[in-house]
Automatic annotation (TrEMBL), chain B:
Residues 1-23 form the signal peptide. This is YtkA-like domain-containing protein. Keywords: Signal. It comes from the Bacteria.
Length: 686, 284
């Protein structure tokens, strides 16, 4: 399948590649990346030893051909994320997958675009933030596990920060590129282009991408109805150097998806639209010895229209529009004092989440049935983050802390009165104090890197968890009611990592453990009557006494020859509550093995990926045993030079043997795509 | 400084005048007609008086009607205070005549306005009609008048009154009091009478009206935290709590229980039984 590591381009011959394929588990490591792609090395080098951070590279830093390091360059952002080590995706169809980090989804994560907080407008998580950007406008995604992500917000599971691609005052003049792609399985057509101008004082980048896909076909030939989608994304970045020391940056993203099918759900989306904008002021030096001062103001607005007008047979017609507007800022600066590297950040956001549900009775003379599923919840969060990286002899320590104040205000009286049916004494406003502290230690013994950390953090309930009103979850077939009296969820986290390069073999072992008190989850309330026709019951969000989650992974890279690499990854996850009951959406043992061959301007990858039987599942949460599967995918790429320009072509096959399968994170066991041929062509004008 | 003070004084004065004039202007028309916000549902001329009946509704309507009465002396154009009024509505059916449950008529805060309620258990039709008999006294004289009135079926067709025979072989009239339903926990009230004779409908005390609101168009789902209607001796009405989780059509399934807890009428709603034979309906 796909991987997102900075392999760079490899060269060689196909024969070698096929011969060298075996079942193994080999990953890549920072040292490898450093050797292969020097441009990326500084990032990797400065980040990996200390943070448990993963960087998913989307477009390489050298301009020209974009997304070249990807086995499938114009795949959706979702596929890029899925191919990473730490992120897995909950899938409800072919579009808008919901990212999970350490087996936790959006309410326990911070998902940001260039540090901007954005919140989806769908009560059913059909529009994760990752669906409002595309590979065309991103350079990379920084994945930070647990409290390492506290810089971006109050998190339990970690943070995903999607960094926008910027020319950044490099003296490149005019550059442009055209990309096109096609996939056979769902006749997906992708057209993208970019036009940039950059010099030392000014730059402006524009990117455009359009995708249209029909229904896909599962392994064995079964068409998955309502899996189509269409989307386009336009983004512009501009920067102006006010002085050598001062920069003014602006960015704007418009993203719109229409006619998006969700085969695993009873409803589709007729429109998902986002306007995202920001203005930044960056100064190399600030007051006194403070440096790298950056201040950003941002705003975004999302409209999400869920409907069932395309579904032939529903018990009742309904519309479920939702809106989410966020306004925020952050300002941060750094201070380097001897062995200390300090970062201070102030941030805040104000979010408004509103969602409605209108049901149309079969008798046209009857009044419409209307409810507010998100009662116009206004969330105000303001926080301060401090970090100190201390360099010691052959080791380093990173200490960080975050303190934030979060208030909720249920602004709509209709919605407040609705919730007061369940909570008669519910206050309209509530305030919570959120905290995070973390300590991380890294030590190098010659080539061996050892690191470990301890952290504590908490989070407030999400809008759905605190204030949702009859949100139907088709996975466990229950209506969910929010609970404004929920306690904050608190997690104590321990993590370790060992990276050990032995000649041509790099091994990394990594693990983390979360002991989470007051873990928020929906529990059945048998006395409550369902609202949704056909639902099995009503769940109310509740604090569990505690839950335990742990994740371990083994990651290896072996350089067979200078042209041929073999990488592999095995990961194991487990999550239980205080009674030993399995938590939902915990991955079974999963593995990936890949051979990458590169010589000159030719490259090829062969990937084997799969998972074992999901033996630890929980029927109470709608899960069943997901059987084991294994998939094989293959891709080839070649770069041609035409004058000064470059043409890059890539072809590949995914799921070569057309296996019918679904994974533990496929909503309602929706089958995944069967055999798929893809082809992309990129042309870069320099 | 002095100037500023005087400006403030002027401002305060003008504001005071503005608010005073508002304060005195507004009540005047109200004093003119304290029932302006209500509909004049009937005006009968008799004995040199005009008897005006006001209601929140457009006209007399099947079910619970809260009515306000004023007596105007046509010779002086003044409204009469300190009157005592009795009423007796009678339905003239093709084969028989009967009355309906109603309250005594009492005075209100406004001394020319009297009020009470009538529960019309059926609407007028082409062959059957209602008569309202009024007996009123003031200044030592008693007057009577009888007027034919029209009782309309509810415009939305929703049931707010039930006439039924309980398992105790008693005929009851159960009427829902007016409700402006909202998506919240609503205060729901009802009045309960038994039909002792064709003309006599005494109030029934200390029974229980159990409620189970349902949405038949949406899988017949219910709502949480409802409270059955219990008798309140102070007000003489049955009151409880009705939770409505969304707008639309709600059927409030009822069971009538006597003071022993025996079910006199109504059935539980189950998978097999979609609704009770005793119910109210609302739509909003």
């Amino acid at each position: 399948m796909k991987t997102t590591y900075p392999y760079g381009a490899w060269s060689g011959y196909l024969g070698h590649l096929i011969l060298a394929l075996c079942l193994g588990v080999i990953p890549l490591s920072p040292q490898k990346a450093q050797a292969q792609e020097p441009i990326l090395a500084p990032i990797i080098d400065s980040i990996l030893p200390i943070d448990l951070k993963e960087v998913i590279v989307i477009s390489s830093f050298n301009r020209g051909i974009e997304h070249k390091s990807q086995p499938k360059p114009l795949s959706t952002l979702d596929q890029y994320l899925e191919s990473s080590k730490k992120v897995s995706m909950v899938k409800r169809g072919a579009y808008a997958w919901d990212p999970m980090l350490n087996d936790m989804t959006s309410e326990r994560l911070s998902i940001t675009i260039d540090g901007m907080r954005i919140f989806g407008a769908c009560t059913d998580k059909m529009d994760p933030i990752t669906s409002y950007v595309d590979v065309s406008n991103l350079s990379d995604i920084h994945v930070e596990s647990g409290q390492q992500g506290a810089r971006h917000g109050n998190v339990i599971g970690g943070a995903l920060d999607m960094r926008l691609e910027k020319s950044n005052f490099r003296p490149l003049g005019w550059t442009g590129a055209v990309e096109t792609g096609y996939e056979s399985n769902n006749t997906a057509q992708i057209v993208g282009g970019e036009l940039n101008f950059s010099n030392e004082h000014f730059y402006v980048d524009t990117d455009l991408i359009y995708r249209k896909a029909e229904n896909y076909t599962a392994g064995g030939g079964e068409e998955v109805a309502f899996s189509q989608f269409e989307k386009y994304n336009l983004s512009t970045n501009a920067g102006y150097k006010v002085s050598e020391n001062q920069k003014l940056l602006a960015n704007f993203i418009f993203d719109e998806a229409r006619d998006v099918g969700y085969p695993a759900l009873p409803m589709d989306v007729s429109l998902a639209r986002a306007f995202i904008g920001s203005l930044s002021w960056v100064q190399d030096s600030f007051i006194g010895d403070l440096e790298n001062w950056e201040t950003k103001l941002y705003a975004n607005t999302i409209t999400h229209i869920m409907d069932d007008s395309q579904r032939p047979d529903v018990p009742i017609r309904m519309d479920m529009p939702g809106w989410s507007d966020t306004y925020g800022f952050y300002t941060q600066t750094e201070l380097i004092l001897d062995d200390h590297h300090l970062i201070g950040k102030l941030d805040g956001y104000y979010n408004r989440s509103l969602a409605e549900m209108t049901m149309y009775p079969n008798d046209p003379n009857e009044q419409d049935m209307f409810m507010l599923t998100w009662p116009d919840v206004r969330t105000l969060n303001s926080g301060i983050y401090l970090e100190d990286k201390i360099s010691l002899k052959e080791s380093s320590v990173k200490l960080s802390t975050r303190l934030a104040l979060q208030t909720f205000n249920v602004a709509d009286d209709f919605g407040l009165n609705s919730l007061r049916i369940f909570y008669p004494d519910m206050a309209q406003r509530q305030t919570r104090v959120l905290k995070s502290v973390s300590a991380h230690y890294h030590r190098q013994f010659k080539a061996l890197h050892l690191s470990g950390g301890l952290a504590y953090g908490d989070r407030a309930p999400s809008v759905s968890e605190g204030f949702g009103f009859y949100l139907f979850n088709s996975f466990d077939n229950h209506d969910y009611i929010g609970n404004p009296d929920l306690k904050n969820e608190k997690a104590l986290e321990a993590n370790f990592k060992m990276a050990w390069p032995i000649k041509n073999l790099d091994i990394a072992v990594e693990g983390n453990y979360f002991h989470t008190w007051d873990y928020i989850i929906g529990e059945v309330h048998p006395e409550l009557d369902v609202m949704t026709i056909g639902a099995d019951g009503v769940k109310v969000y509740t604090n569990l006494e505690y839950a335990n989650l742990y994740n371990v992974s083994l990651d290896m890279v072996y350089q067979l020859t200078s042209e041929l690499d073999w990488s592999g990854l095995v990961s194991y996850h487990r999550g239980t509550d205080q009674n030993g009951r399995n938590l939902p959406f915990i991955s079974p043992l999963a593995y990936r093995s890949r051979l990458t061959y590169g010589q000159g301007n030719f490259s090829g990858t062969l990937t084997l990926s799969g998972a074992l039987d999901q033996s630890d599942f929980n029927p109470d949460f709608g899960e069943d045993r997901t059987p084991a599967y294994a998939l094989l995918s293959l891709s080839f790429g070649k770069t041609f030079s035409i004058g000064g320009d470059a043409l890059y072509g890539k072809v590949g096959i995914e799921n070569i043997f057309d296996r019918y399968y679904s994974t533990y994170s496929d909503w309602n066991n929706i089958p995944r795509m069967g055999r798929n041929f893809f082809m992309t062509l990129s042309y870069a004008i320099n | 400084m002095k100037n500023i003070k005087s400006i403030f004084a002027l401002l305060a004065l003008s504001l005071g005048i503005a608010s005073c004039s508002n304060g005195t202007d507004d009540p005047l028309p109200v004093a003119d007609n304290p029932l302006e916000e209500f509909n004049l549902t009937g005006s009968f001329e008799a004995n040199g008086h005009a008897l005006e009946i006001y209601s929140e509704q457009e006209g007399f309507t099947m079910g619970y009607n809260e009515l306000f009465i004023r007596i105007k002396d046509l010779s002086t154009e003044d409204y009469v205070s300190d009157a005592t009024i009795h009423w007796n509505p009678v339905m003239h059916m093709t084969d028989k005549a009967h009355s309906c449950p109603r309250s005594e008529i009492s005075t209100t805060g406004e001394d020319t306005v009297y009020k009470g309620f009538i529960v019309f258990q059926m609407a007028s039709n082409d062959d059957e009609y209602w008569e309202l008999n009024l007996e009123y006294s003031f200044g030592g004289t008693t007057y009577t008048t009888t007027e034919q009135i029209t009782v309309n079926a509810p415009s939305n067709g929703k049931r707010t009154v039930n006439v039924f025979t309980g398992t105790d072989d008693v005929k009851y009239v159960l009427a829902m009091m007016p409700l402006t339903p909202e998506v919240t926990v609503n205060d729901l009230s009802a009045v309960l009478f038994k039909m002792e004779t064709m003309m006599n409908f005494p109030a029934v005390v200390d029974y229980t009206v159990a409620i189970d609101p349902r949405m038949p168009s949406m899988g017949n789902h219910s709502s949480p935290n409802n409270e059955d209607l219990l008798f309140d001796a102070d007000t003489g009405i049955y009151s409880g709590k009705l939770s409505l989780t969304m707008t639309g059509y709600w059927k409030i399934n009822l069971k009538l229980l006597n003071d022993q807890g025996d079910i006199l009428k109504g059935e539980d709603v189950t998978e097999e039984n979609e609704g009770s034979s005793l119910f109210f309906e609302i739509e909003f």
